[in-house]
Amino acid sequence: MKICCIGAGYVGGPTMAMIAKQCPDIQVTVVDLNQTRIDAWNSDDLPVYEPGLDEVVQEARGRNLTFSTKVDEAIAAADMIFISVNTPTKTFGMGAGRAANLEFIEKCARQIARVSSGHKIVVEKSTLPVRTAEAVKRILSSSGNGATFDVLSNPEFLAEGTAVEDLLKPDRVLIGGESQEAIDKLCDVYAKWIPRDRILTTNLWSSELSKLTANAFLAQRVSSINAISALCEATGADVDEVARAIGTDSRIGPKFLKASVGFGGSCFQKDILNLVYLCEHFGLREVAAYWEQVVSMNDYQKQRFTERIVKTMFNTVSDKKIAIWGYAFKKDTNDTRESAAIYICRDLIRERARVVIHDPRVSEGQIRATLTEACTDMQGNISDLDKRLIAENVSVAKDCYEASKGAHAVAVMTEWDAFKELDFTQIYDSMQQPAFVFDGRNLLDRCQLEKIGFEIHAIGKS
Question: What is the annotated role of this protein in its UniProt record (predicted)?
Fold first, then answer.
């Protein structure tokens, strides 16, 4: 069997690398139009940082794993084609700010239809609105060149930072489709290393909707505990103690009950807004309003964090240096999509603060690009003032010590383990006094920092 995957991003690259590693008899080709990204996949400096990914890629690359820009050639040769391209939230037209932009999905389907011959299985790997497969099937069936297709839905359930482990030992693999023969062929691929009882099969529409629903439920838990964190700060309760108390209830469980500055990543907000748009489309206004509140609470948590910094620092951060520890949306990844740090930094520089950012995996170019995007409106415009603030009030440090030297405050944005092992006495001595710490991840030892002399403000703790 030959597999082609269109899209060499955070999902396509690691997923295909794992399939190639576990199935040496299958030739896997990952294609992308971005030459720079493909070059990175063919180098020792992969474009995606995930613990353990380097070893997986190195084992299979050159044996049965290929990264290429020859899209038509790979499609034509493949028996099974995965579509793993970006489906961002629309920024224009109908459904702007909510609906998924399916432009790249449609372009992939048309390209597959144009160059294919014989019979092929097309697998939706990207997160898609329910019933997208219907449109993909119509496009493929109109190829006019005699090719035939089966369409499957096989959504990913990877958590960035643990993607390799999630691929090796998934809770489940979900495959939706109409052709049992096509479903069985994809099942056989995964069954090379995943027990059959963890491979679930459904109809197409259930599979597509399950992905959106899973992310909505996870994000809902984060927003729920974050809502309680605000009440904890007002009443003197400790959100970590509350989370532990309710998490020991077997009906609730402990996962995704860690209060923070807010969730980020490519999926949660995008998928919930997509779900909201779908509900509105089908006239389910109350359902749409329910799920939209999850995103509203996440925005409120970020806004609340910024306001707490400003109010605590004597109601002004103008010309004050604030060290930002972490910029990725979570530890063990270089992904910054929808990271809370982006919006905190944007709001702080608009308050005329000087932010100095350190993240062990995120480049300065990536930081400035995401801040520019966050300051850009729906029409693609950015003010001259925001441009100047990004240029003059944002700098990047090589480590936390450099970022914190002379700073009035530290804001912890990402829960990198290394941040817990720093010499906090040295950091305290290098800062302006009083030295503030705003722990957006409840990562640091509060008692230890207070003994040194820091004034620490954490999420959900008064």
Answer: Catalyzes the conversion of UDP-glucose into UDP-glucuronate, one of the precursors of teichuronic acid.
